[in-house]
């Protein structure tokens, strides 16, 4: 951040003293000043920075406050002391952005007074201190005119002709705008659609913003868009969620907002679309596996695809993954290029050259800022770290960048000590760094989290910046009109840069004499590098064409084989369908026969039941006949026995003189 001129670790100890942590301080001061979650995190980061990883035993259950503090510290794991210091200051600035000025008000701070018309031998910064042990902080710069009145009172001479009011080239000029001025902010997004610059979201005093502002180039007039959020198929409208650290991309006269930090982060990266015609936001439906949610990432439009790199997730973990969203099919693709990728980082910038090369520059981790340049060949999917010529850019994070032709312009950013003052340009064909202009003091251009867009107005190309944070939130608009020489200048701007009373920041080539021979030799050297690069590119193109032809022949042969195989499969499919038809008919015939047999079986079962009943009746008759036969046999036997008795009784009676029975004889 660019909130103070102190370097680490002094900056961390100053922040810790303000927060109420340190020697002779109690934790209750932190809890009373900040929210409980922020106070716990600040305490844990302070312990991690000063003591190291948590190795003390966990407190007992009956001490819940100490347990909570121990847990917060223990969760940081092996986080380094430097990273803990940087995170501590960053969280304090989000919770209390004015902490630095409050410390400044209570100490004997130096005075910084940058005058537009200062003499060459006049010091730009006067420093006073009452004690050598006191921490000194630079004050915000004061811009004055010859008569000492503020610069804002000198804007009467500005003619409202849109961007045409910027008369000089390669110099930043503050624009005089009208209408309701947006709230000052940083980490917002900016995009240009139909001669208008749209500003969405951002961070102010640690709070995320969700408003949408628009600046008309013609009249330089601000206005607020009362945008609604279209919630799904129900058609209900609500407001869009505030966010910061997102990216705005202009696509087909609409604006895409990708990612960003929110109060309630989602698990995956969301893509929202704003339609200027209807004034509504809507969530775009994507396919495939989307990347995790993040902020501080870079989004680059390459043809009809968005290339997303790096950033910081909701848990403050740095990323260096590469994801691509095809805007034609709205499909995500997770890429894994070969080569050494950039280290995990956030708040970097990315640009595209020749619809093929993705360039990544700068950014920061939790402990340091970077000044490295990485290039990804989108066709070969290979990372490389090229050697560059010209000036050597300093480390920075939170800067902004745009491409115009072969030139990549870089503005602003911070290096953990102060804001970066120079405006850089990289000739992407020759890989030559140059400085266009620079500024001195704490001006909005030397800020983190500012936005930068490019617009062509009346045949001229303009860079336009808005907002930023360098210890003070900004809502100012600056413009720089590009000249044809912007991409080939390679002079290093050093020392103080004079500023005129009209509020325009002058460049070195206007305040110092440039050696023509040096400039000619440097330009010729750049042309030689460009010619050499073109010849190498032609050779590379020829080899690529040969490889593509060979690959085409292989693909055609493979296509012929696939067509033959397809015909064979079609024939097999037709035969299978014919067999299927025959089997279906046979199955229907078998089902008909089965139904007939089932009917016969049913009739047979009925006949069998009747026969069983008749058999039972026959058995009963047989038993009855057998009984009658027995009765008949018994009757016949009885009759025989009776006759025998009669015959034996008559003879003995005759012998003994017993007369026969008359009843028997009769």
Automatic annotation (TrEMBL):
GO terms for biological process: lipid transport. It comes from the Eukaryota. Residues 8-101 form the ACB domain. GO terms for cellular component: cytosol. Transmembrane segments: none annotated. InterPro entries: ACBP4-6_C, Acyl-CoA-binding_protein, Acyl-CoA-binding_sf, FERM/acyl-CoA-bd_prot_sf, Kelch-typ_b-propeller. Keywords: Kelch repeat, Lipid-binding, Repeat. GO terms for molecular function: fatty-acyl-CoA binding. PROSITE patterns: ACB_2. Residues 122-152, 639-666 are annotated as: Disordered. Belongs to the ACBP family. PANTHER family: ACYL-COA-BINDING DOMAIN-CONTAINING PROTEIN 4, ACYL-COA-BINDING DOMAIN-CONTAINING PROTEIN 5. This is ACB domain-containing protein.
